[in-house]
Amino acid sequence: MSPSALLRALIMACAMTTHAHATPPTTAPVADYTLKVGYLDHAAEGLYEIQYNTPGNLVMTAVIDRAQADQDLGYVYAFDADTLEKRWRLAMPHQAFALAQDRTHNKLFVSHGKNRALSISRVDIATGTLEQTSARLPIQPEDFKGNESLRHMVYVPQVNRLFVSYSATGESSTESGRYHKLLVIDPDTLELVGQVEGAYPRTGYALTYDDTEQRIYTGGSGYINVIDPASLQVVRSLDMSQAEPQAANLLSLGIDHAHKRIFAAQNIFRSEGEQDGLYVFDLETGKQLAFVRSGRGSINVAYNPERDEAYVANFREGTIRVISGKDYSVVRTFDIGPLPNELAYDAAQRRLYVGLKEVYSPRSSTGDFVEGAKERLLKITLPSEQ
């Protein structure tokens, strides 16, 4: 069976699968989840972060050329959100990793955080054209020697600022040789204008923006910080040092205002996955409410307040799990096959978008890719009722 035929078979199978502990409906059945995929043009390309754009009804993905990594080639794809057919594909000046949107002006920001590019581009979404790329951001002294990268980004419209997580490792392997910062970028000039002190007190990569409370959340090894984007101050720190299992590497956060909770996905790299899973913490106190062993490589989480569900992408396991916010049970498992990575949730259309990677090793998301297998975007249309 061909790879594409196998994927179709897997999707049909998982769409029909319900977790054994789910409660059978007592009334007329609710419409089930439906799944659809769209492919990148070339098998050598790898997709990363995803953004949904309402005005254009687009789903955009950041892409790198893995086969020619030394040439630092990158792209942004825009797919039709309904059909997942490609609308446009824009060549970028460097590899593309993270995305953020200024929805008021319909602009897309793209981070170039690999191959030492350390720059940001701005794209006009309506036309699919590149407007500007920054110079290399001057974060470390010129004589700094080590590895630097830009991670996730969020755009805050209330202050017209782009916030970008940054990590670096100096030549020393000690903790003092590691740097984690939250950079502040002017979205008009794409210049570095500051950073948020204490945003990442220790190793940390998680970053999300909550538009309801107008707060930025960062997370990492044993902590979650709450940041006021106007004052650039950490206004609250949640201590997760007593979490069970140890909260050593929080990668993704989801906010639930109705129940004052924060969901945090943990992935311990190069482990056997014993501590991978989804934490649930009290949003105000940081008290641990639950830990769900959602699967190995739980790399990303999205929360759906309408259905009170959390969706977790388990990269090393090749699954997406649906977790009930009522009792934290796993109510649905999608056995995808390819490795699910980044998520984007569109509440208005009730859709979850997932980037599916094709690599030989579930411990790597970049190299060792499967020759001839195209990476793809998965759309899961969610039921409107419980």
Report on this structure.
It is a single chain. The protein has one helix spanning 3-15, and strands at residues 34-39, 45-53, 58-65, 74-80, 86-92, 99-102, 107-112, 119-124, 129-133, 146-156, 161-170, 178-185, 192-195, 204-210, 215-220, 223-228, 233-239, 250-256, 261-266, 277-282, 288-292, 298-304, 309-314, 319-324, 330-335, 339-346, 351-357, 376-381. It is mainly beta. The strands form 7 sheets. It has a 4-stranded antiparallel beta sheet with strand order 1-28-27-26, covered by helices on one side. A 4-stranded antiparallel beta sheet has the order 2-3-4-5, with no helix packed on it. A 4-stranded antiparallel beta sheet has the order 6-7-8-9, with no helix packed on it. Strand 12 (178-185) and strand 13 (192-195) form a beta hairpin.
Overall geometry:
globular
Largest sheet: 4 strands, antiparallel
Structural class: mainly beta
| Low-confidence runs of at least 5 consecutive residues | 1-30
In DSSP terms, counting alpha (H) and pi (I) runs of 4 or more, how many helices? 1
Distance between the termini: 36 Å
H-E string: HEEEEEEEEEEEEEEEEEEEEEEEEEEEE
Write down the Rg: 20 Å
Mean pLDDT: 88
The neighbouring-strand order within the major sheet is 1-28-27-26
Strand content of the residues, in percent? Answer: over 45%
Number of strands: 28
What is the helix content?
Answer: under 10%
